[in-house]
Amino acid sequence: MKIIPLGIWGGYPKANSATSSFLIEHDGFHCLVDCGSGVLAALQNHITLEQLDAVMISHYHADHIADIGSLQYSRLIQYYLGQPSPVLPIYGHAQDEEQFSKLTYKEQTRGVEISEDQSVQIGPFTVTFCPTVHPVYCLAMKFTVADKSVVFTADTEWSDQLVSFTQQTNLLFSEANLYEEHIGKSPGHLGGSQAGKLAHDARVGQLVLTHLPHHGNIQDILYAAKTVFSGPTELAEVGKLYTL
Fold first, then answer.
1. Sign of the C-alpha dihedral, residues 59, 26, 175, 9?
2. Digit-coded pLDDT (tens) for 29-74
3. DSSP letters along 163-206, please?
4. Which of 71, 84, 143, 232 is most buried, with most CB under 10 Å away?
5. Per residue in 169-193, is it b (16+ CB within 10 Å) or e — as a string?
6. 26, 23, 38, 44: which is closest to 173 by C-alpha?
7. Phi and psi at residue 78, in whole multiples of 5°?
8. Per-residue DSSP letters for the chain?
9. pLDDT at position 122, please?
10. In this structure, what are the phi and psi dihedrals at residue 131, rounded to the nearest 5 degrees?
């Protein structure tokens, strides 16, 4: 498995950047994890849009779906140019029926329902899900190939269920949107120390922090995580290749 962060920000992208999103690839199969603002531009630094095989959406806040419409238009334009691509599956939960329905667009994309109690096979990946603690229904996801796995927390507060879900994963991409003084004051997100505790309690191999805030010194979030988790820990870096 190869994972590349395409964006690292929560809420909205900084200049020339994107919100938290990832490209995950194995054996030539490319899956996009979340598709918020700026993600399509970042994705094209690595593959063409036509090379995308699947999209996985954790929830329907704008910073995770803002570029879905543009992705759908890209497929439609190729169709008009006489270069149609296969229908692109976009996986998302149906707890919000209106938003789920928007994942299907003409003959270009098709919404595929996911749920917390069922795994799905997406290309070479077995993907399982865990509900998170967020103002809207949101799913963390685990991608597994053979004996290797990576977990993306998506957006969440602390969750004991997430600890169980994440147990002994090789690589954990955890949101860390809060400074320590803001823990408990902003719903639906983790502080750096909480991301570190998740990694520690779940005995993961490596922790990477994402969905970062725009204010303050984000190195403080990294420091807070490292005070709790002694394993390899870093801030997500756009374009960096993580290999399992």
1. negative
2. 999 999 999 999 999 999 999 999 999 999 999 999 999 999 999 9
3. HHHHTT-SEEEEE--B-GGGTTTSTT--BHHHHHHHHHHHT-SE
4. 143
5. bbbbbbbbbbbeeebeeeebbbbbb
6. 23
7. -60, -35
8. -EEEEEE-BSSSPPTT--BSEEEEEETTEEEEE---TTHHHHHTTTS-GGG--EEE-S--SHHHHTTHHHHHHHHHHHHHTT---PPEEEEEESSSHHHHHTT-BTTTEEEEEE-TT--EEETTEEEEEEE--SSS--EEEEEEETTEEEEE--S----HHHHHHHTT-SEEEEE--B-GGGTTTSTT--BHHHHHHHHHHHT-SEEEEESB-SSS-THHHHHHHHTT--S-EEE--TT--EE-
9. 98
10. -65, 145
What is the domain-level CATH number for residue 79?
3.60.15.10
Over residues 78-110, the pLDDT tens digits come to 999 999 999 999 999 999 999 999 999 999 999
Question: How many CA atoms are closer than 13 Å to the CA of 46, on its beta-carbon side?
Answer: 23
Pairing of strands 29-33, 54-56: parallel
State both tokens at 201. 């309690």
Tokens at residue 241, please?
A: 């290749």
Question: What is the residue range of 81's domain?
Answer: 2-243
- The structural domain count of the chain equals 1
Given the structure tokens 């685990």, which residue do they identify? 142
Average pLDDT over residues 162-188: 96
The pairing of beta strand 206-210 with beta strand 233-235: parallel
